[in-house]
């Protein structure tokens, strides 16, 4: 190792943090540790650290020899509990990773430590990588393991089977020792587990019966695997977070899950988005959660080809959900009438404020057009049945999506979204499009809207259009919209206009429906987003005190136009009252 490399490592080690006096973190330092010499300073730091309960190595890259050296330091820490080792094998050969993991595992086992958390996420080591921790997971060091995070590892069916077998063996051994394995958190998204892998893992979940959080999105799981998982979840009555996004239920899988849901009364987050539930699946899920489930905070059933009947059933099932913060039904097939009906149901419950954006709704399909297509192609008549026909099929006649493959790989229900341009976003605004504009979204929108931003009224209207895609619990979307609004409001307040503060506040009040426009300008349809973004905007230095005062006066008055978004209004008022 050259003197330059050593100085770089020393400089990075200076950034090492000690969190809470029990966590040692080398996270995000970009260290390339190929051998024992490269790792000697880290080894010394670990060895000398007193009471090291947690070690973060994420964002670095470890070779086999470096891992061997670090394992010797781990031997000195029987108190060690949390191995936060995500993203630490970038650029390494897949054959290196299991060896490195075995060395690190040996260090833990020789220390006789008792792990409660093992995080190996974002290490794309595939089925061979899991072999590196098999002995550790079966060892008494993991009898008290509570959190297992294996997100984005690409385990595949083989890796899933190995993991399931190992967890079952650990459960049997730990039970015999009087301390049964009781995982609380299991995360394995983007793992290519498919039906076989998820079915074998379901057996382990069923045996433990202790899970509180399960996140398995985008795993190519079809209704046989979903059914196995649903049966396992019945035994895990303390489940709080359940995320199976971007798998393929169909109505068959939805029915199986609906049988499990009544047993899961502690659920707080239910994410079955992009799971091809369709209308029939949505209706059985709605019926399953209609009674009880009083702790539900978030329900995501977006992009499921659900029509208005199914969406209304879901909305009606929210009646007794006093903890509800977000209901996502975007990307379905409600149509304008369906959207109004869903909004009406939620408004009658005083829960309209919790409904996410519906800007990506696909509209109510034209059934006459579908019939014409069927007549034109008799050979594919069965494959092109209308949604209503498919919903009425028996389980025996349902399509087996587990056989839909291309070159041996399950076909994903949706394609990855491409980078969205400012023009595409403005043509049909949505939260997902805003996020998919990338990090330069604010500059792109300001450029696209440069003509509108030359005048206060058109500028404010354009900004409110961007903000309208924000929902009450969409933190990422809210941050993105706030970033865009910052740039555009800065340009507005740089205009050489008389009474600029009054003009801007007047335009804002019109857009929020608090003032009538002389030009009969209509207010924004969904003021929740604008209110939430304004709570950020009014705190900025460029925003005049006069404009804040005017907003506070009008928002403090009772006004029916904001009755549907009282929570967002309250957030803005709280920000205004700080001045």
Fold and architecture overview:
The strands form three sheets. Strands 1-2-4-6-7-8-9-10-11-12-13-14 form a twelve-stranded mixed β-sheet, with no helix packed on it. It has 24 helices and 16 strands. It has 579 residues and is of the alpha/beta class. The radius of gyration is 27 Å and the shape is globular. The protein has helices spanning 3-13, 36-48, 64-74, 96-111, 126-130, 134-138, 156-176, 194-208, 223-233, 250-260, 278-290, 308-316, 335-348, 367-376, 387-391, 422-427, 431-435, 441-448, 456-467, 475-492, 500-511, 528-537, 545-555, 566-577; strands at residues 17-19, 23-25, 32-33, 54-56, 61-62, 82-84, 117-119, 147-149, 185-187, 213-215, 241-243, 269-271, 298-300, 326-328, 405-406, 409-410.
Mean pLDDT: 86
Q: Count of DSSP E strands?
A: 16
Task: Note the beta-strand portion.
Answer: 5-15%
- Can you count the helices? 24
Strand order of the largest sheet: 1-2-4-6-7-8-9-10-11-12-13-14
| Unreliable parts | 1-19, 366-417
Tell the overall outline: globular
The multimeric state of the shown protein is single chain
First-residue to last-residue Cα separation: 57 Å
Helix content: 40-55%
Write down the Rg.
27 Å
Summarize the structure.
With 579 residues, the chain is of the alpha/beta class.
Quickly list its features:
579 residues, alpha/beta, two-stranded parallel sheet, 24 helices, 16 strands, disordered N terminus
Secondary structure blueprint with pairings:
Elements: H1 3-13, E1 17-19, E2 23-25, E3 32-33, H2 36-48, E4 54-56, E5 61-62, H3 64-74, E6 82-84, H4 96-111, E7 117-119, H5 126-130, H6 134-138, E8 147-149, H7 156-176, E9 185-187, H8 194-208, E10 213-215, H9 223-233, E11 241-243, H10 250-260, E12 269-271, H11 278-290, E13 298-300, H12 308-316, E14 326-328, H13 335-348, H14 367-376, H15 387-391, E15 405-406, E16 409-410, H16 422-427, H17 431-435, H18 441-448, H19 456-467, H20 475-492, H21 500-511, H22 528-537, H23 545-555, H24 566-577
Parallel strand pairs: 2-4, 3-5, 4-6, 6-7, 7-8, 8-9, 9-10, 10-11, 11-12, 12-13, 13-14
Antiparallel strand pairs: 1-2, 15-16
Helix pairs in contact: 2-3, 3-4, 7-8, 8-9, 9-10, 10-11, 11-12, 12-13, 18-20, 19-20, 19-21, 19-22, 20-22, 21-23, 22-24, 23-24
């Amino acid at each position: 190792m050259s003197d330059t490399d050593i100085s770089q490592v020393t400089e990075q080690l200076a950034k090492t943090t000690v969190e809470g006096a029990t966590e040692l973190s080398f996270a995000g330092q970009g260290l390339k540790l190929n051998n024992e010499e490269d790792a000697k300073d880290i080894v010394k730091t670990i060895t000398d650290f007193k009471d090291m309960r947690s070690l973060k190595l994420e964002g670095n890259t470890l070779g086999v020899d470096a891992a061997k050296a670090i394992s010797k330091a781990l031997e000195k820490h029987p108190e060690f509990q949390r191995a936060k080792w995500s993203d630490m094998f970038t650029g390494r050969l897949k054959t290196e990773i299991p060896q490195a993991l075995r060395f690190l595992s040996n260090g833990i086992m020789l220390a006789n430590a008792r792990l409660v958390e093992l995080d190996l996420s974002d290490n794309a080591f595939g089925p061979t990588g899991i072999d590196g921790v098999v002995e550790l997971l079966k060892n008494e060091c993991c009898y008290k393991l509570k959190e297992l995070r294996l997100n984005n590892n690409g385990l595949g069916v083989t890796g899933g089977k190995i993991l399931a077998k190992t967890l079952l063996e650990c459960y049997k051994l730990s039970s015999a020792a009087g301390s049964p394995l009781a995982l609380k958190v299991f995360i394995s998204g983007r793992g290519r587990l498919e039906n076989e892998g998820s079915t074998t893992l379901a057996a382990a979940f069923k045996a433990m019966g202790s899970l509180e959080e399960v996140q398995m999105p985008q795993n190519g799981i079809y209704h046989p695997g979903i059914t196995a998982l649903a049966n396992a979840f019945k035994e895990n009555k303390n489940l709080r977070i359940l995320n199976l996004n971007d798998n393929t239920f169909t109505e068959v899988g939805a029915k199986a899950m609906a049988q499990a849901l009544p047993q899961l009364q502690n659920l707080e987050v239910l994410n079955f988005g992009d799971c091809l539930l369709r209308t029939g699946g949505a209706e059985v899920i709605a019926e399953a959660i209609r009674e009880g489930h009083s702790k539900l905070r978030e329900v995501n059933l977006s992009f499921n080809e659900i029509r208005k009947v199914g969406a209304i059933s879901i909305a009606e099932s929210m009646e007794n959900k006093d903890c509800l913060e977000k209901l996502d039904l975007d990307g379905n097939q409600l149509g304008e009438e369906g959207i109004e009906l869903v909004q009406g149901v939620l408004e009658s419950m005083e829960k309209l404020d919790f409904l996410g954006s519906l800007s990506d709704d696909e509209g109510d399909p034209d059934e006459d057009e579908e019939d014409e297509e069927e007549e034109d192609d008799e050979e594919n008549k069965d494959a092109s049945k209308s949604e209503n026909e498919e919903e009425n099929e028996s389980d025996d006649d349902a399509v087996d999506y587990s056989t839909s493959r291309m070159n041996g790989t399950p076909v994903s229900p949706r394609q990855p979204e491409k980078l969205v341009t400012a023009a595409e976003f403005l043509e049909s605004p949505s939260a997902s499009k805003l996020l998919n504009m990338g990090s330069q979204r604010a500059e792109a929108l300001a450029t696209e809207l440069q003509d509108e931003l030359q005048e206060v009224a058109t500028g404010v209207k354009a900004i409110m259009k961007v903000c309208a895609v924000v929902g009450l619990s969409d933190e990422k979307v809210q941050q993105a919209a706030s970033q865009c609004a910052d740039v555009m409001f800065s340009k507005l307040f740089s205009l050489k206009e008389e009474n600029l503060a009054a003009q801007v506040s007047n335009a804002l009040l019109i857009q929020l429906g608090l003032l009538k426009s002389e030009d009969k300008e209509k207010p924004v349809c969904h003021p929740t987003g604008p209110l939430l973004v304004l709570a950020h905007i009014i705190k900025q230095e460029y925003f005049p005190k006069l404009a804040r005062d005017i907003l506070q006066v009008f928002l403090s008055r009772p006004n029916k136009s904001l009755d549907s978004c009282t929570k967002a209004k309250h957030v803005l008022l709280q920000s205004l009252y700080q001045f």
